[in-house]
What we know:
Distance between the termini: 63 Å
Largest sheet: 9 strands, mixed
Oligomer: single chain
Shape: globular
CATH architecture of the domain at 3-236: 3-Layer(aba) Sandwich
CATH class of the domain at 3-236: Alpha Beta
Number of helices: 18
Number of strands: 25
Strand order of the largest sheet: 2-1-10-9-11-12-13-14-15
CATH superfamily of the domain at 3-236: ANL, N-terminal domain
Amino acid sequence: MKLENIKEYMSKNKDSYLEYFERGHYYKKRYEEVLSDVLKLVSFINEKKVKKQERIGIVGTNSYAWVLADLACLIGGWVSVTFHEKNFEMHKEQLINQFDVKLVFMDEKYFDEKADDIYIQLSLIPQIIEKFEPSVIEGAAFTDEDIFTIIFTSGTTGTPKALSIKIEGTSHFITGVCDLFQFNNSDKLFIFLPLSVLTCRTYIYGALLHNFHIALSTMDTFSLAMKKTQPTVMQGVPYLFETIHDTFYNMLRESKFKLFFVNILFGLNNKNLIPKKMMRAAQNKFFKEFHNFWGGKMRLMITGSASISANIIRFYQNTGINLYEAYATNEAGLLTINYPGKCKIGSVGTTFVGREIIISDEGEILIKSDNLAYRYEMESDEFNSRVFRSDGYIATGDMGFFDKEGFLFLRGRIKDIITMSNGEKVMPGAIENKLKESPLIKQVCIYGEKSPFLTAIVTKGNPKVTKEMIENELEKYMSELKEVSKIKQIIFTSEPFSIENKLLNVNMKMDRNKIFEQYKKELAEIYTS
């Protein structure tokens, strides 16, 4: 199934539907209704005299109107430019001019006195399209090699960079993932991460093409939407799964008997010593509340974008909800994935169909595929050539290795490598992942560039955690590491890293530079004392 033919498939899918909450109300629309609204919006855009292949911006919180605007671009033949909200707010006029957008669909909060005719309020789209008839479109608006959207990196290393995305690579992702996970028309996909993140939209396209349902939410409506829509499939970031895990475990600790029983149960199940039928009965009895939090029908969840502890994945699988870790990049799309029947916890899976992955002499992961991305917009040829190499490989900037069975294990980002004052190099990501296995540590970021020792900036797993308790944990977890990789000092965070305080980016990855800036006073006291 090709993405450019999405209109044809939506028109045939009579039974599947999109559910969403807006302004406290619940809505449910069948795909043929959604398509009618999309084609009405295409008529509106045509009236605005926007030429085919010209660019249309979209920025705002997840909403039905956001989905309509995106699909109108895809079906009508315009290139969508999907801005991350935090970047757009600071550089609105610059971005609109820089990317030559002819129309911008945006939330009301971005309007000001200078707003002109190219600004369209997303929330007004339902009223706007009432005045239009559905546009009649014959054939596909894009071909395989066409660029259909421009996306932005999360901006961890500075100003977000824009990538031109081809339609063919997106189609390949959809087909491969739907085959591996065997989605069917009884499945319901839950989307809550920002729609400016391409994978969120790609999963939506997959549901529209392969005829399964969609539940659209935001973080604000997450719990309400989860209970009402009862999804079976979702994509989420490690931070979410870690937070829910920590919350549930803190509840378990209130009963020493329950905690003891669960730990014994999980230990036996990890060694395959409990019959499956008996384990399912235990899961239904002891983890019903946990299952209900996820709607009660969740069968699988997919995570990526940042590292996640193997213990977290084991926890979810032991409760009866399968959580699979994958590895993808903005430039090349999905690279490796764990899936039913082929999963190794701790790895990011085996090579995705159609990909060729090698490890360079320096340990960097290099990928060759039907490229998802074409190039970075507004960047020099020199910069692009470092990523999109002349030998056909894409440089990921990640370090890793394959085991004998073909599972890929990540070691961390090249740019995150810490060079100590004695010249030795340390991979902080591997140490942080190990430390996060402790229930006493919710978040950790390691500092030590050009310094004689490492310091851990730690968010406590619960308010009762003391420095002495963390030091004991460090001693336990660090025993197998080289001396240079051992942590000598601890700083407790004043609040968890989050998107709101800008210490996590839009993909909920740590922004190390901002974290170090936030705690520069404490770090200075440690290294100058």
